User: Fold this.
Amino acid sequence: MSLENVKETAEKIRSMEIRGAGEIARSAAESLKNFVEDSTASEGEKFIEQLKDAGDILISARPTAVSLPNAVNYILHRIENCELDDIETLRNLAKNAADSFIDNSLKAVETIGLFGARRIDDGDTIMTHCNSKAAIEVIKSAWGEGKDIEVIASEARPRYQGQITVKELASEGIPTTLIVDSAVRAIIKKVDKVVVGADCIAANGAVINKIGTSQIALCANEARVLFFVAAETYKFHPETHLGEIVEIEERDPEEVADPSEFEGIRIWNPAFDVTPADYIDLIITEKGIIPPEAAIMIIKEEFGWAVGGKW
Ligand code: RUB
Assistant:
């Protein structure tokens, strides 16, 4: 019964009914919490095994946002080294871990908004891409402080998450403009700062975010426009320190065009791209604002336990 709920959540993540790296992580934590509440395991070892299986189902839903395995591992790590025969304690620890992950995650987004707003000036025109809660929080927070700002958002084909962004910002009263992705270079000189989110940040400071982000970074670099990334620390990828490569999700070609109308033609739909650290001025996290080169320090601080023995 409750594994069904886990599978349902995984399916919603896969189909993008639940989307955005932070939201994906929080819903995975919530789903594991429900799983724990329903679990009938009477033996600690079995309980952990079942929880790991449930976690694996969630992790397999989408490959790129490292927030997903980080959320699952946050919970598992807190019960793995406990007394296995005390099942009630294990259950409570897992539930509390899920709650604290969700709570910390929401607080992190809020803090990022406050920190990020300090880097936004009165009169700024800000460009954003896709739909990132963390990036939007920076913009909303600057607006909330009374800064007179404007936003230009690219639509983020093929799933058009930019449309969600412009509606959300406009509903706050923020002057907002929607552009097609290919208009970025034509208008970048009107932009003062770019603020985007992240699905994953590697040890070398590279940021993996919605496809199109790296082109914006390239244009911003050419035009000497500042490029900021807003990301909670659970978007940093522990294993990239050990040389692991981040998998870039390739989604269904049907999201781009109807394949039956393009017989013999490959339709390629990578969902994310990699922006090298050289194109990023700052990463705004809830622990503070860092240059991309300091990503490794966040990874050591936040995930030393995860990779501990291995480095
Ligand atoms: C969403 C996306 C967002 C990041 C950060 O991609 O690339 O910029 O996930 O979002 P998708 P947040 O729509 O394919 O999930 O700041 O909300 O975690």
